[in-house]
Amino acid sequence: MSKNSKKTILVVDDEKDLLDLIEYNLKKEGYLVLKAENGEDGIALARDERPSLVLLDIMMPEVDGIEVCRRMRKDKELKLIPIIFLTARSDEKTEIEGLDIGADDFITKPISTSKLISRINAVMRRYDENEIKLQNFKIHDLEIDKDRYMVIRGEQEFQLPRKEFELLYYLASKKGKVRDRQTLLNKVWGDNIYVVDRTVDVHIRKIREKLGDDYIETVKGVGYKFRE
Fold first, then answer.
1. I need a surface site. Which of 17, 80, 85, 184 has the fewest CB within 10 A?
2. What mean pLDDT, rounded, does the chain reach?
3. Do residues 136 and 144 touch, judged by C-beta distance below 8 A?
């Protein structure tokens, strides 16, 4: 039995031929596959089935992929599901927008089947590894709760999107040690995930907006560290 046979992938795309092609190749790899041809149906299926990962087209009529991702990241039941965007657009602005709202990776159309499978497996592996490694701990005045992907300070609770939480967690676990952007990308997003350096800056900014500037320090020309 394939190691992927119990994992379900939801594919949301308005191109039926592409849906069928992706379904065929994912099933060959042992994944279970769900399909939706529009954003609303995709969200409904995600709520009903709780897939292991969502492949999400950006350019769809009515509710596009960016909006679907935004809604999922705000939904307490769906916010931790990894999302990979499928897009015909390869500009950095689109990529930054998607990563800013919580996407895990981008795959540019036309899709290479081998690249698609490799990137899905890489994201899955990263999520599985993080589930095993993360432990609850306290640092400064923060309690980092990995079970709820939440940071607690006194009576305040901060619910962070998955990548923001994992980035904060990694820096806090290396307190006082400077990490450059490439290292942070490799450790949090994975070394097989192709995202730009600015992704780290965007997520650091989001963390600071929630927790303030007292925890993560910018080391000019190098990277970031969690303050000692």
1. 17
2. 85
3. yes
